Amino acid sequence: MLSKTNNLNSIIKSFASLFLLMFSFALQAQEIIPDEVKETKKVDSVLPNASRKIDGVAAVVGDYIVLDSDIDKSYLELQARGVDISTFTRCQIFGKLLEDKLYAHHAVQDSLEVSDAEIRSRIDQQLDAFLQQTGGSMDDLLKFYHKDSEKALKEEMFEINKTTALASQMQNKIIEDVEVTPEEVRQFFNKIPVEERPRFGTELKVAQIVIQPKVSEEEKQKVIDRLKSIKADVEEKGISFRSQVVLYTDDKASVSKGGLYTLNRNRPRMVKEFRDVAFSMQEGEISEPFETEFGYHIIYLEKIRGQEYDVRHILLIPEVSNEAIVEAKDKLQDVRDRIV
Fold it and tell me: Where does residue 260 rank: exposed (0-12), middle (13-18), buried (19+ CB within 10 A)?
């Protein structure tokens, strides 16, 4: 009996020891776990970069999609054309884009077509106009529209112009059979509140007769000789062509850029005489003096980049003598006397 009691006590002690050991381990685990959790949280707290919205779909019209960036681009294009964008809200721009897409969608449904060649020609004209107005290069234009290449820019412009052309055709088709009578116009106008009616200033139609004073041959030769002297100074004395531009050119539009213009063989810019000389030159060459409708020039071909030519030029305009001015005025006075 005593032996059984001792065995029982031994078993109880063993269980007690095991329990205490497990309890002790649990306590240690409780002390360790918070540290591990802290470490885990510390790692998790280093989150990856937050997601950022690149673009969004503002609307879908048939097969056409209007993106948020399309609205932003419309703002930029209006601003580039000198339009006061403060008079337009984002909602108005969005509405105009929706309207164009809707017209274009129905134009496709009605099998209306536009010529791809006509669209490409229009794109070339738009690019030429932009470059002439800004005096910039194709690189500047690509940066403005965030494009990597001229091809990518033209592809985007192609879709925009095609949509616009289809929309215009659809509008014309809708209104071609509509007849508006003068009475309907009068009624419509009278319904407009007086304070909202458009106001038109006085319009005048004028005609004019222009007589340009003639420049003497002596004055023309003086300008040609001066340009030849500038050319010789650059070629023989190593004087900077750009510094000569700043000192002598009469082209005030390009003087701040050192007389720099960028020409492209595929997109005619500048007058024909200027292009013909520029495209016949070698890199680093200075042309002989030549005449255009603006005066006399010399060109320095700075760099050729594929189809683009970076040129600097100096323009000198021959002076008109007082005698030539008086002669022109006398002719105009004689014409006036005969008319009156």
Answer: middle
Q: Which residues contact 68 (CB under 8 A, 6 or more apart)?
A: 55, 56, 57, 58
Give the predicted TM-score (pTM) of the model.
0.46
Distance in angstroms (rounded) separating the CA atoms of residues 35 and 24: 18
Q: Which architecture characterizes domain 59-177 according to CATH? A: Orthogonal Bundle (1.10)
Distance CA 319, CA 317 (A): 6
Domains of the chain by residue range: 59-177, 217-322
Contact call for residues 289 and 296 (beta carbons, < 8 A)? yes
> Alpha-carbon distance 320 to 221, whole Å?
13
Distances (CA, A) of 4 to 11, 18, 38, 110: 10, 21, 51, 105
Regions of the chain with pLDDT less than 50 = 1-47
Residue 146 per-residue DSSP state: T
pLDDT digits (tens, 9 = 90+) for 153-184: 888 888 888 888 888 888 888 888 888 899 99
Which residues, including other chains, have CB under 8 Å from residue 79's CB and lie 6 or more apart?
Answer: 85
What does the CA dihedral 22, 26, 29, 31 come to, rounded to 10 degrees?
A: -130
CATH architecture of the domain with range 217-322: Roll (3.10)
Measured in degrees and rounded to the nearest 5, phi and psi for residue 36 equal -65, -40
What's the gap between Cα 172 and its chain centre? 29
Integer distance in angstroms from the first to the last C-alpha of the chain? Answer: 155
Q: Please give the structure tokens belonging to residue 287.
A: 């042309």
Instruction: Of 267, 246, 233, give the one whose Cα is nearest residue 315.
Output: 246
